[in-house]
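seq as requested:
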Amino acid sequence: MTTFNNIAGFINRLTEMSKKMSRLLFISLFILLGFVNSTAHAQLTLKPLSGSEIRSFMFGRLMSGEYPDGNQWAERFNRNGTSDYSENGKPIRGQMTLNGNILCFTYASNQSSGGCFEVWKRGPNCFDFYATRSGANLDQRNFGQGWDARGWYANQPSTCVSEQIS
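struct tokens:
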């Protein structure tokens, strides 16, 4: 009978250890999933960049990008406030101004209308542009949807996660 009690006690201890291990595994998975989820969304900013951040991240850089319709663009954001824009191989000289956290573009040519934008940094090399007249609401902006243009540093791979979702 003693052997049976020893075996029964051993099985009980294994069952208790198994319950503890199951709890530990569950907690570990919960923490891991929370970490993965937070890093997946860490690239989304919950506010537009400030004027000084826009100047720091973008001025003096050649940017490539796309519009929601898939048209591609490129623009050199010169440190002196000028820009060299190109879409469909047509270069256009522009002027940039910062009004608080709003970046505005005007072009000498009537080929492009320009506009004013909030810029949201989505990752190390991904920026979403929302026109001040944009129909994107705050939830869409918070989750990187409804952008009017998207850009990245031309000399590096884009880190933009997904395409425009309408």
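Confidence is low (pLDDT under 50) at residues 24-43.
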